[in-house]
Request: fold
Amino acid sequence: MNNKVQANKKLGQHFLTNQNIISSICSDFEDEADAIIEVGPGPGILTEKLSQISKPFFVVEKDTRFKENLEQVVGEDKVFIKDALTFSWQRLFKYFQLNDSKIWLVSNLPYNVGTVLFTQFLSVPQIKYMTLMFQKEVGEKTIVRNIKNEMNGLLFLSQNYFQSKKLVKVSPGSFSPPPKVDSIVISYTRREHPDVAIDDFETLNSFLRVLFAMKRKQIQKVLKAKYPEDKITEGLKHASIEASLRAESLTYQQVLDLFQHLELNR
Reply:
């Protein structure tokens, strides 16, 4: 495959060149998955290895420059030159009869839209496994690190819907062109029985956006933007949360209890 196309800075592209990391990513869930989707394959650095796994394989790529090369590896009918942010996952699953399949999603997430894409992937129930590369600072927000004040909206969503672990840290020199920051690859396995059901994903995500919009302000003051004061008082008492605490200091269970009281027990 021709890998000589220049990275597009506007799309946040940095092409991985470290073969050890490429191998780690491409072997992460090869035995567990029924089908594979790669988002943002670019010049196909991961694509060639993933295509050697004997399972249905699809790619979603926004950059039209890579269409012909990707089709040579994956096949014309399995290359979608689309923006993943607006891509219809359910249409893909229905057309290729993948609704009951365990999908493994692989992506070197563009730095400029990584958070938005990650949130979208969490909401797709057919995606059972993910191997994702992030800007290190962003990726670490999705995994438990047992540090003070680590709670945030991404972490709660990730913990609720997936089990996660760090696969490998990636230095700037592993890319062409090198980014200015370190990256991290994280491995995710979907929980069969999340505490908040997938049907309530949008309600949960909306609640978390309010709760963590001003994470250093006192929780009671933050929640007043959406909820009645008496309801907030009841919710904080139910979740054993002091009104003066900040959202970033909460535990997973406290956020869960607060959400259930304010949103699901209306």
Observations:
- The chain has two domains: 9-190, 198-264.
- The beta strands are 15-16, 35-39, 57-60, 79-80, 103-108, 127-135, 162-170, 175-176, 183-190.
- The first helix runs from residue 19 to 26.
